[in-house]
Amino acid sequence: MIVHNISSSSKAALYFLFSVVLTGIFINQKFWLYSSVNAMIISGSIAGTKWLIQIIAALVFLKDKKWDFIHRIGFVCFMGSVVLFVYYVFNFLPFPFGGFSQFVLAIALAVLVMIFGYYQAVKKTGLSAKWFWAWMLCLAIAIFLQVTVVF
Question: Are 9 and 67 in contact (CB under 8 A)?
Answer without folding.
Answer: yes
